[in-house]
Design goal:
5 helices, 71% helix, globular
Length: 111
């Protein structure tokens, strides 16, 4: 499976540098949040279109960092990303039925 190979590549990169000692769930979650904030910086004070035009390469790099930390965290907690996503989509389908949520940006408890 492609996701498993990607996670294996990330883990091999980490382990070859002896960084696993720093990658407990708490610190991975903190790092994930920090990288998400760095991603957001690329959008600050610009329109969405301006941000993408001016900062596309940096956005791509920061998004990669977010994904790497998310996958490392899922690996540490033995969470299968594919299954977690499928399960979450199912929950969201219940919270946001098409007939109520279509075209709306309201939260499920406001629909």
């Amino acid at each position: 499976m492609m996701m498993d190979k990607l996670i294996q590549k990330i883990v091999e990169f980490r382990d070859s540098r002896n960084w696993r000692q720093f990658h407990n769930p708490k610190d991975l979650a903190i790092s994930l949040s920090i990288e998400a904030s760095e991603l957001l910086e690329n959008f600050q004070w610009k329109t969405s279109d301006e941000s993408v035009t001016v900062n596309f390469e940096r956005i791509q790099e920061e998004l990669a960092d977010v994904l790497i930390y998310a996958l490392l965290l899922s690996n540490e907690l033995n969470i299968k990303p594919e299954q977690a996503i499928i399960d979450k989509i199912k929950k969201n389908e219940e919270k946001y039925p098409i007939e109520k949520a279509y075209g709306s940006n309201k939260k499920y408890n406001e629909l």
